[in-house]
Write a structure and sequence with these properties.
The protein is mainly alpha-helical. It has a single domain, classed as Rossmann fold, CATH 3.40.50. The chain is 43% helix and 6% strand. It has 13 helices and 5 strands. It has helices at 17-28, 57-69, 74-79, 93-105, 108-114, 121-131, 155-163, 180-190, 202-212, 219-227, 246-255, 257-263, 273-276; strands at 2-3, 7-9, 31-32, 49-54, 195-198.
Amino acid sequence: MIVTEHLIFLQLMKTGSSHIAILLQNLISGERIAKHNRLPADFPVEGKYIVGSVRNPWDWYVSLWAFGCAGKGNLSQRVRVRKLQGHSIKSNPSRGIFSAFNEILKPVSVWQRVYADHTDPQLFREWLHLVLNPIRKYDLGQGYGFSPISSFVGFLTYSYLRLFTRDISLLYSRKYLTNLEQVRQFDQQNNLLQGVIRNEFLEDDLIRVLDEAGYKLSNHQRELIKSSGKSNASVRDIELGYYYDRETVELVAKKEEFIINKYGYKPPEFQLSWYKNNDQIISK
């Protein structure tokens, strides 16, 4: 989280948030308060323009996986080891025992294998099926498996709602959130964001939200933003469509329908030559 005189920026992982944070720190003296943390309940927001960042879900999953292949990121570090302590069994016995039992059953060797090579599309697809399989939802941490929405929305949608909502208690209500329409209503009623930076238009959107927040950027500052390179990027030099087949495109479309519809995202365009040898012709 970055706080400036007029703005609060909440950092959603793998959406360009590290790059945005550095720009805010350098250009308008932004103060870093933790990183991917939620806004504390008692944090003063009066007079602050609250901003977050988003990313095309198909791109987001590849970036999250590739980052993990490099041994980085909380998710990859969590799923590749078995954690048998720290499950709060005393304070919450039922949840703690369940969490510890899930750790015993967690297929650590499978998780390790799917992070082996960031250039292998088959490993990415296997990883994606693990991440979006409700059976493995407790492996991912951050309370995802304990939210009823984990049975029908993906990890990106959950992470988005968890970060950009002030009171997240309803995310864990099995009576309130049982379908996608209720998720949309929850977001409409509880979303904190006043401005959004899309990763695909990061520089232009950042300039726009700074204007909206009341900053008077000089031409030099605007040029610095437009000419800046990305920070904390995943290791990847292959086009997005290389990693997906029809099944995984449709899987993300189903699980991330909320984000896709809200921000108008489209699936990756495939290079047909990648699939002709396998008779897997993917329509655009």
